[in-house]
Amino acid sequence: MDGALEAGNQAEKIHIQEKNINFYRGCLTCQTNNGECVHNDDMSEILEKMIRADVWVMATPIYFYNMDAQLKVLIDRTVARYTEISNKKAVFIATSWDDKKTAMDVAVAGFRGFLACPNNVQEAGIIYGTCVNDAGDIKGTPEMAVAYEMGKSV
């Protein structure tokens, strides 16, 4: 985010764990209701921001070799308006206590599966934060420098 701001871009961080985002029900009411979901929660605001943004950065800790539940719920809930999501770039950041990048393969595959659904959303980078156990462990690592440079290039 610092790199993007330094390059003169606007950026906003959304902590989805602090948002009220209900689980996707698969009712597809949104498909016949102009993209309006039956849930009255924070996802409509987040989805609107995703549609307007040029670049997304999605970040997650790895739990049991996969992305956390909050990010998966957010991804699932984009179904309401995913046809409006187009011409974006997306970066994925994953952190794991494991020292091997392969511990994040399932989560990366899920991210790539999501990117395959909207129109012309391009993967712009994957950042693997290995050996990260506690909040703050990633600070000062080479991955932070990579993230900073990615931010400057968007």
What report would you give on this structure?
This protein has helices at 2-6, 43-52, 69-77, 105-115, 142-153; strands at residues 55-63, 66-67, 86-95, 119-129. Helix content is 31%, strand content 21%. The protein has a single domain (2-153), classed as Rossmann fold (3-Layer(aba) Sandwich), CATH 3.40.50. It has five helices and four strands, in the order ααββαβαβα. It is of the alpha/beta class and 154 residues long. The mean pLDDT is 94. A four-stranded mixed β-sheet has the order 2-1-3-4, with helices on both faces.
- The CATH architecture can be given as 3-Layer(aba) Sandwich
* Tertiary shape: globular
The helix-and-strand class reads alpha/beta
How would you state the average pLDDT, rounded? 94
Helix segment tally: 5
**Into how many domains do the coordinates divide?**
1
The helicity comes to 25-40%
Strand order of the largest sheet: 2-1-3-4
CATH superfamily: Flavodoxin domain
State the major sheet: 4 strands, mixed
Q: How much beta, percentage-wise?
A: 15-25%
What is the CA-atom radius of gyration, in angstroms? 16 Å
CATH topology: Rossmann fold
SSE string, helix = H, strand = E? HHEEHEHEH
Q: For the terminal residues, how far apart are their CA atoms?
A: 10 Å
CATH class: Alpha Beta
Uncertain runs are none
Could you give the count of β-strands? 4
